[in-house]
Amino acid sequence: MLTYQQQFEALADGTRRAILAKLIDGPIAVGELASDFPISRPAISQHLRVLKDAGLVSDSASGNRRLYAIDMTGFNSLREYFDQFWDQALAAFKRKADEQEEAR
Amino acid sequence: MTTSATATTPINGSVRKSIVVRTDVDRAFRLFTDGLDSWWPRSHHIGKSPMTKALIEGHAGGRCYSLQEDGTDCQWGSILVWEPPHRFVMAWQITHECGSAMRTAVDSPGGWETLLQLFAERVHAPEQQGR
Q1: Who contacts A102 (Cβ-Cβ below 8 Å, separation ≥6)?
Q2: How far is A77 from chain B (nearest CA, A)?
Q3: Considering only Cβ atoms within 10 Å of each terminal Cβ, which end of chain B, N or C, has fewer?
Q4: Does B60 touch chain A (CB under 8 A)?
Q5: Average pLDDT score over residue span A44-51
Q6: pLDDT band at B101, cuts 50/70/90?
Q7: B92, B100 contact by CB (below 8 A)
């Protein structure tokens, strides 16, 4: 089971967010990705591993290459988290506002 | 409205919410910002230890942050626009870099009811470089 904490931690790194931004354009192989970043290919692989473990990136074989892509399921669950969070937060805000009015 | 760069992506990252509260616009704005700590759900914090207080500094460039039980503080975002009592915009940040932006509009549709609208954009879409 993925935790949101794990997703937030994965997103807390600038290089990983830049990798995700790149993946928005479509699936890409590590080699191609590495040429866009000033860090080594093993470092890119390590970042991809963290993103994959967090459910934000998926990989698939294409011939003898492995292509990395945005994992929509993971992103949608993260979106759902924020959606529910704000429902709760605004309900709490409304309760407090009502309470404040009653106390007036 | 969502800005251009994400419109071409398959990700629809915005979360939009609105709520009507029975209080006037000044009080609603003040409760949302100065009073943040009194209503912010405690379950949600990004620091390593539980949060003790949530605060917003009411000016452009101000911080939105929490104090943690271990004595540290943890910044969530920065205020980009501060226009009390109708609007403020903040950029959430996961680290020191900006993540996504949230616009909050507070309006009076009539009488003493206040409509609060929240537009959290690109909350889950990765940030674009150089934007």
Answers
A1: none
A2: 9
A3: N
A4: no
A5: 96
A6: low
A7: yes
